[in-house]
């Protein structure tokens, strides 16, 4: 047995991204001469499951008597699509270190096999648990969704988009911990993408994932960003609460049509027992337009998630909220200097930019809005600048901190200029125009298809033919 080189992995298997090396955890990658040598380190137990790559076993580390899961993978042919997925999975698992994401302990390489040693999740997959229970209570769902949102916030901060979030890829660490809570671990990063570019390079075009969890912008094939994961959180949450997916259709085209034409359905009797708070979150997560979707950070701050019932009521209708805000300025309860609009504009023209992570802000459009995609869920600010900065994701991060990277405006509608309205005269002018826009209702709609028709997304990523990567999951 010999330690692998400093890069940590077999270089014929994995081409590491040099920029990420320093961020990676110290996951030992060990070369074994024979497969039998691993049996001297671990005692293999029951089979836990089978994936498209290989078999997963429970295993006991002989020296420490600790239990692990070992994924045994036949080394795929060099250059095959499986190699890319495995590379991606290992590369990403080496970088992540979060309580709600599966932990990779070690990687073993032999001439024919690769072994991934990960933490053991004795509770199996979340979909199995859901099948047993039929549906989860709001309390159980809250805990699971909070953990999932925490994992997604963490991943997105690392520029990792999971792209295949679903019940099957959420493992249960233990069926129920001491508090009766279900501890989850996000797994299966085979279809994940790490965004290494800036601005438009962070728009992906590959269609991948599992249909019922797939965001509409991903299905449309016009380009998508990390907001596809938010849609999937919405589908997972919906399924936890009622046991069934919100939208079902046999083909991608029909499913897309269904999603575009329908409200999030709350017709089944079970929904009468679900709180409005939970339903509101669902409609905010399942927004057709990703620019109007609730961010994972906002989700974490939502009173339904935090259980904080003392959050001051905010007007749920954004237009109403903005009018009240302007009225305060007019009546002098707020000075112009108090205002700090983040203005932006893309080349598509006027566009409302959700301000990142306004706590307690809720959307309440499910019953009031006839068009599901036309109402934003986040605190919105008007956009009136005429300058296009070409600002990038990285530039935004430098200027505004890491959270800036997860605003839809930076990704979905490409680069925006973020300008603080500090000089009084220009701020006055801008606000006057903003007020005009708000009172006329202008700007309050962002139609994905219109936007994209106007300026189709392009990507530096290669476009490959549709291929089946695993049962129910596919990628282009
Ligand atoms: N760490 C783990 N602890 C417990 N069970 C696991 C663990 N990892 C995987 N499993 C089980 O083994 C099964 C196969 O996992 P694996 O990761 O190989 O495939 P998959 O996630 O189903 O899909 P893919 O084909 O994309 O690899 C899973 O469905 C799960 O039930």
UniProtKB/TrEMBL annotation:
ATP binds at residue 71. GO terms for molecular function: ATP binding; protein serine/threonine kinase activity. Residues 42-305 form the Protein kinase domain. Residues 366-376, 383-395, 406-427, 439-460 have a biased composition (Polar residues). Keywords: ATP-binding, Kinase, Nucleotide-binding, Serine/threonine-protein kinase, Transferase. SUPFAM superfamilies: Protein kinase-like (PK-like). Pfam families: Pkinase. The keyword Transferase applies. Residues 353-476 are annotated as: Disordered. Belongs to the protein kinase superfamily. PANTHER family: SERINE/THREONINE-PROTEIN KINASE. This is Serine/threonine-protein kinase 33 isoform X1. It comes from Betta splendens (Siamese fighting fish). The lineage of its organism: Eukaryota, Metazoa, Chordata, Craniata, Vertebrata. The gene is stk33.
